[in-house]
Specification:
6-stranded mixed beta sheet
């Protein structure tokens, strides 16, 4: 299966930006639709965004216009640019193939947005 490692999280103030990275190994992700998910404390893991092999994107309503998903197939990488961050964006962020493979969940990267 694909192994995924997320990075780029941190503590920021509301209105600031972060760029998350997802490094894939074990298999090329070139032909997979890839997604980002997030899980806030005490809540379910929710869909954030996904991107097809060709670059077609989808976003959760809560992040539309603020987040941008992108990919570099040659580098086996997926990114999430997060702008105008809000406290409600605080969560652990994960990437995965679509639909998610339970074997591919990584450790995630923590994003904390202070008000």
């Amino acid at each position: 299966q694909v192994q995924l490692v997320e990075s780029g999280g941190g503590l920021v103030q509301a209105g600031e930006s972060l760029r998350l990275s997802c490094a894939a190994s074990g298999r090329t992700i070139r032909l997979y639709r890839m997604g980002w998910f997030r899980q806030a404390p005490g809540k379910e893991r929710d869909f954030v965004a996904d991107i097809s092999w060709g670059g077609t994107t989808n976003y959760a309503d809560s992040v539309k216009g603020r987040f941008t998903i992108s990919r570099n197939n040659a580098a086996n990488m997926v990114y999430l640019q997060m702008n105008s961050l809000k406290p409600e964006d605080t969560a652990v962020y994960y990437c995965n193939i679509m639909p998610p493979d339970f074997r591919s969940w990584g450790q995630g990267t923590q994003v904390t947005v202070s008000s």
